[in-house]
Amino acid sequence: MDHKKIEEGVRLMLEGIGEDTDREGLRETPARVARMYEEIYAGMEQDAKTHLDKQFHVENNNMVMEKDIQFYSTCEHHLLPFYGKAHVAYIPDGTVAGLSKLARTVEVYARRPQLQEQMTAQIADALEKYLHPKGVMVVIEAEHMCMTMRGVQKPGTKTVTTMVRGAFAEDYSLQQTFLQMVK
Ligand SMILES: Nc1nc2c(ncn2[C@@H]2O[C@H](COP(=O)(O)OP(=O)(O)OP(=O)(O)O)[C@@H](O)[C@H]2O)c(=O)[nH]1
Ligand SMILES: [Zn+2]
């Protein structure tokens, strides 16, 4: 990440809103923001492959679900946070990933400027590509700060996005089982 560019940008933005970037409280802000971006945009430099490549063989090919994965992301339209829970499930075809790797995959795609729909699809794509499962389903529920603190100003509104692949797309009852388990 280019800290110098981020710092310049933050300084310009503060000047743009009429701030004095030399006042004590703001003097270190550009550098702080750059350090923070290393964290909140860490997914830019990550690949889900590194988490999903290591797999274990199993006899049990029933659904595996990791639910209530808390995440924080940033909407690419306003650069304001959106945050909530991701629920991720797949039906293995002989191999499974470590449980933590589903949450790590969510992090890879959350920590970027994002659209909720796109993040939902990217998580499903990664699981499909690297685990070769019989099916994948991802549901994300989130609150968007760009809809609460500004704009339409509707606090409490939840946006729910879904992506189904393979067996989940073909078998409606599997989707129902997923939703029952999420509840
Ligand atoms: N589809 C989708 N839209 C999003 C997401 N995050 C924010 N948005 C929306 O992006 C849209 C941007 O609309 P614009 O009309 O270009 O921008 P705007 O004038 O700031 O929109 P308002 O928020 O309605 O004031 C808004 O409707 C936001 O609610 C997301 O993850 N997915
Ligand atoms: Zn937004």
UniProtKB/TrEMBL annotation:
Keyword Metal-binding attributed: yes
All copies of domain GTP cyclohydrolase I, residue ranges: 6-182
Keyword GTP-binding: yes
One term of GO molecular function: GTP cyclohydrolase I activity
Binding site for Zn(2+): C75, H78, C146
Pathway assignment: Cofactor biosynthesis; 7,8-dihydroneopterin triphosphate biosynthesis; 7,8-dihydroneopterin triphosphate from GTP: step 1/1
Keyword field: GTP-binding, Hydrolase, Metal-binding, Nucleotide-binding, One-carbon metabolism, Zinc
Pfam families with a match to the protein in the record: GTP_cyclohydroI (PF01227)
Reactions catalysed, as given in the entry: GTP + H2O = 7,8-dihydroneopterin 3'-triphosphate + formate + H(+)
The protein's Enzyme Commission number: 3.5.4.16
Alphabetical list of PANTHER family matching this protein: GTP CYCLOHYDROLASE 1, GTP CYCLOHYDROLASE I
Oligomeric form and interacting partners: Homopolymer.
Family: Belongs to the GTP cyclohydrolase I family.
Name listed for the protein in its UniProt record: GTP cyclohydrolase 1
Organism of provenance: Anaerovorax odorimutans
Name of the gene: folE
